[in-house]
Amino acid sequence: MSEKNILVVDDDISVSTGVRITLEDKYDVATVDSALDAFDYLADHKVDLILLDIKMPRMNGLEALDEIRKRHPETSVVMLTAYPTEENIKKSWESGANGFLSKPFNVNELRDYVDKALLKKR
How many other C-beta atoms lie within 10 A of the C-beta of residue 82? Predict the structure, then answer.
């Protein structure tokens, strides 16, 4: 298996499961369904890339991104959203996101985006 670890943070289990299935042949992929669960996971695991949904209950992805940048500045974060508004995109970049992927995305688009994000991290 890969030396690269990915964490998918999305409250929609069909999205996180689909992403995991798409990427697990090449990477180690874990999934959680909230930002708070992501912080718990990150406390015990090294992660190279986080795929982070913007719209989630309790703590949205933009709030989580700010906290991830403080706690894990070396970790790449790609924002995921079904709501690619200009405001969401701008806030993502301003908060230190390394990329932005709009849902729905196809398998090839996801694989290519993740591969490129991890290559930049080297």
Answer: 12
Does pTM surpass 0.90? Answer: yes
Identity of residue 65? L
- CATH topology for the 5-121 domain: Rossmann fold (3.40.50)
- If we measure between CA atoms, which residue out of 75, 106, 104, 79 comes closest to residue 90? 79
Domain boundaries, the chain: 5-121
Residue with tokens 């974060």: 77
Residue type, 56: M
Per-residue model confidence (pLDDT) at position 3? 87
Half-sphere exposure of 45 (CA within 13 A, CB side): 20
